[in-house]
What does this fold into?
Amino acid sequence: MAEKIKINIDGIALEIEKGTTILDAAKSVNVKIPSLCYHEDLCVAGNCRVCVVEVEGRKNLVASCAAPAEDGMVVKTTTPKVRSARTDIISLLVSEHNTQCTTCYRSTNCELQSLASEYNVDSERYLSVLKPNIKVDKSSYSIEKDDSKCVRCQRCVRTCAELQHVNAITVAHKGKDMKISTFMDLPMNDVVCVNCGQCVTHCPTGALTERRYYHEIWDAIGDPDKHVVINTAPSVRVALGEMLGFPVGTRVTGKMVTALKKIGFNSVLDTDFTADLTIIEEGHEFLDRVTRALKNGEKVALPMITSCSPGWVKFIEHMYPEHLDHLSTCKSPQQMFGALTKTFYAEKMGIDPSKIVSVAAMPCAAKKFEANRPEMKSSGYQDVDAGLTTREIGHMIKQSGLDFVNLPDSKFDSYMGESSGAAVIFGATGGVMEAALRTVYEVVTGREVPFKNLAITPVRGLEGIKEATIKLEKVLPAYSFLEGVEVKVAIAHGLKNARTIMDQIKDGKSPYHFIEIMACPGGCIGGGGQPIPTNDEIRKKRIAAIYAEDEGMPIRKSHEVPEIKKIYESYLIKPLGHKSHELLHTHYKKRNRY
Amino acid sequence: MENVKRVDLIFGEYTQEKYKILEETMKKSNEQIITEMINSGLKGRGGAGFLTGMKWKFTAQEKEPTKYVVCNADEGEPGTFKDREILTKVPRKVFSGMAICGKAIGAKIGFMYLRGEYSYLVPDLMAELDIYHEHAKRFNLDFTIELRMGSGAYICGEESALFESIEGKRGEPRNKPPYPTVSGVFGKPTVINNVETFVNAVMIMKYGAEEFKKIGTTDSRGSKVFSISGDTPKAGIYELELGMTVAQFVEEFGDGDTKAVQVGGASGFCVPRKKFKDTIIGFEGVPTGGSMMIFNSSRSMYNVLHNYLDFFEEESCGQCTPCRVGCQQLLKGIQAVKKGEKPSSYLNQLLKLSENMKITAKCGLGQSVANSFSSIVDNFKEEMIY
Ligand SMILES: Cc1cc2nc3c(=O)[nH]c(=O)nc-3n(C[C@H](O)[C@H](O)[C@H](O)COP(=O)(O)O)c2cc1C
Ligand code: SF4
Ligand code: SF4
Ligand code: SF4
Ligand code: SF4
Ligand code: FES
It folds into this structure.
């Protein structure tokens, strides 16, 4: 039991655990102290000073996010002294800011904006010290960096270092020239940035945003010559509602489909279809590797690691290029979808693929970069024309003037609109593993995974690295060499945890056969393209929605989806077959380390 | 009027010093050393003026087995150059002080963080360190000293930024608490003291707390090494007893036409002529890390302040809002008032800003900009406007 101490905040006496910060203590009694550099996910910086409060007996104000409460402390959060200081600090931030709220992408969802309006600061109080000629860095396919809107809270820097272990962005220079920069101030596209977008979701302002492509999509929709297809990722449907008037954790699948149809997409399809396809391909790839290793004694790269998170893929290309053979060769569901849209779907629908615009609605910023990888042209065209974030979709729906809350539900179109609950859970950390196990176990043993209601609980939840072991018993004759084998799996989310897993592999000490890695904390539900804010409380609610969606699905296993069966019968012929390799698999390359 | 008193505590007796004092001190118990330090009333010479003995005591009390001693030789305050002199003339006293501290608190490693611009001292210091390590071996003292170089950022003299720098990170001040005595360099309990503070510690060991206390005043024990510059015929380094008034100081060092003295460098206070008599140099009046800049009537105090603000705007680490933006606003603000682009009443807004910087900035840099700003603006308002 931690030691308890007594403090008083704004006249409220409370008892808290020793070590609690004043900010957290205040929160526990519903006293809201404004903050800016503070973020639940990150270590405390204490640099914006917006959260200052008065502590009795001290001359200086105290940054409540950084100061542990001490026994007997008497804290006041809104004295004239505090208000004067806080207003000054916010005014100073405004004085170095390129205030463009009328046109800013983060307007109405910006922490500086709300602080400035809450405190009604006078923008004329101080002279502008905004640096002239700040250029927006638009070099990256995924991330836009506008230093003129930066409040230097370093949330992005801490995100990239602590959560992601990438360190693409750091603080450079000092004093008035201090800014957030890259290695040698190189453009974002030329550095180690993996495009995960976590810095974007952790940025309080419009300084870091995803590169937007939705304006071009509006144009395509308006073009009668184009056939615009959109597929939506599983985690989008459990988060989109947050931007459109629903509480966190609401599933809005049907309304989202209706809205996208009303917006004018010619076809609204489900990325879950290719998530199921991924399970079939990746599951067989795993079995193939295991067979070659255990039965034929070949030297095969094990553990095999999932490849559906493009931020993770770029991470390993930069950081562990000598271990790329561990990556599954499967494309991400988005890229499988794109390749099939302009081949299979085009054929089926009798549409000239050159007229198809293929769009993906994703929780992700990295998928924008992935769509633009030069090798992603299996269909003969750019397979995915644009990867839009959940936020961009939210903006489009807002722009469309639809009364989202009151929209009726609709179903996905066909082809490639059918899927299983196994595909839905791709959106949460552990989901790909769970989906794969549901199929692989059954392929090998002929029986369902031995978990109640198919819920493989050990792989669920927000723990950074999760492990599970599944023993294969009474296997089918074709897999007799697997009898008694304990399949060891691990799940990591957030690239910090990915690094731990990779270091084990590097040291030859990885005990696992199969590993799922997602670049973003929580998996795609916490993706860099998801509504802002995202924190653990929100992640948990989105995850709950994902599993609820899974349970509500009539089909829970990828290999049982009729449309999946059909595409193998009529088009792909067999998993890992010739056509699959052409359209659904890819290769990786070594990248620089700065 | 009584004159200023020269003292020869810091630089004296060097030739006799063959690590004798250190050797003698090794015979004392750690408690004895710390008690002696506390009784001496010695306050740190780096600026903040914390009681050195208490700092050592707190660190000694920590249960963590690994502890460090750090000597702050970053000497970045404009107008100070006394640590350089001490390191040149009496490095053995500095090393002895660090070693005594190391013994007293239970540390085995000490770092000397040397200002980047002083790299020319490195060969001599390394040679001296070899001699120190030989002596330490001779009386079985397990305390080694390593040199670490700064790279020219003023903020790296701030203790927690200095730790970050030693750890190979960007020199940004940390949140306090935790204080260095609990979590300093590499997260371990650390005593950090100024060069001169360590030398004082050695002299306290030699003469005892009672003798030491005879010099100086109740609030300001001992002597102080001053770096004197500006409009003076006697620029240079002087060791003086603490407790004199600015008037006494000016009588000795001024050029007869002194209009103001900046005590404590850019982050210190400006004392105008009319306050010379009533202002004591020391912790009861204007504290100083040693920098004394003398200005005569030919100087524009606007230019003086402009220089300081230029300095702060560059040397702030830039992490916290009040300091990063505040410094720019103060500078831009006085320029605007001077040019008539802002009314003279804008100075009041700026004074209020500097007060808010003082109470909200994350570290001593941002907190002390108001010292020079308000003391110059308040006392020389006309010079700011016309
Ligand atoms: C901006 C800034 C710069 C500083 N620079 C120095 C310095 O150059 N040398 C120094 O001894 N102390 C400097 N200090 C004070 C140190 O943080 C610390 O208080 C001191 O080293 C403690 O030693 P003392 O107790 O012996 O004075 C600085 C403080 C600040 C805020
Ligand atoms: S970042 Fe925020 S304050 Fe700045 S322009 Fe955008 S909405 Fe306005
Ligand atoms: S997108 Fe990800 S990798 Fe790139 S800078 Fe942001 S946090 Fe770092
Ligand atoms: S880019 Fe955003 S997160 Fe990073 S320091 Fe600037 S405002 Fe903060
Ligand atoms: S007060 Fe200035 S130097 Fe200190 S932490 Fe803040 S910005 Fe950095
Ligand atoms: S929120 Fe506490 S200093 Fe920024």
Remarks:
- The CA atoms of residues 44 and 66 of chain A lie 6 Å apart.
- The mean pLDDT of chain A is 97.
- The longest helix of chain A spans residues 272-295.
